[in-house]
Amino acid sequence: QEEKKQLTLKVEELERKLESTNAQNIEFLQVIAKREESIHQCQLRLEEKSRECSSLARQLEMAIEDAKRQVEQARERAVSRERAAQSKMLDLETQLNRNKTELNQLRRSKEDAERRYESRLQDLRDRLEQSESTNRSMQNYVQFLKSSYDNVF
């Protein structure tokens, strides 16, 4: 009977321990359930953030591609403008050279014309002087003749 009593006490003690262990198991299961729920929520948020990141990455790639296109277009426009400016500069240089050549030709023509004019002017002066000299000679001769006729008559 004593043994039975001790066994009963042990059984009761083991049952209390079992209940305590069961209570702890229940608490652990609740903690595990809460943690699993938390993990599940975190996974859902992670998936949502991953989708968001993917979306943002696609938007970023599109923005980068768009920026690259715009930069390429701007570069092409700049190259085109530079070519046009170089072409215009070459045209202007050609026109300047042509104008310089024409100006030099005009200067030579002017100098030639001035030389011819000076030469003709000098010829005319010489002829005028010769004519005036001839005229003076003739006037002197006429004066001589007048004097001579006056003396004769």
TrEMBL record:
| Gene Ontology BP, a term | spermatogenesis
Give a yes or no for keyword Phosphoprotein in this entry. no
Biased composition regions of type Polar residues, renumbered to the chain:
94-106
* Region of interest called Disordered, as start-end residue ranges on this chain: 80-118
Q: Where is the composition biased (Basic and acidic residues)?
A: 108-118
Alphabetically list the UniProt keywords: Cell projection, Cilium, Coiled coil, Cytoplasm, Cytoskeleton, Developmental protein, Differentiation, Flagellum, Microtubule, Spermatogenesis
GO CC terms, sorted:
centriole; centrosome; microtubule; motile cilium; spindle pole
Q: Where in the cell is it found?
A: Cell projection, Cilium, Flagellum; Cytoplasm, Cytoskeleton, Microtubule organizing center, Centrosome, Centriole; Cytoplasm, Cytoskeleton, Spindle pole
Source domain of life is Eukaryota
Coiled coil among the record's keywords?
A: yes
Similarity field: Belongs to the ODF2 family.
Can you say what this protein is called?
Outer dense fiber protein 2
Gene source species: Platysteira castanea
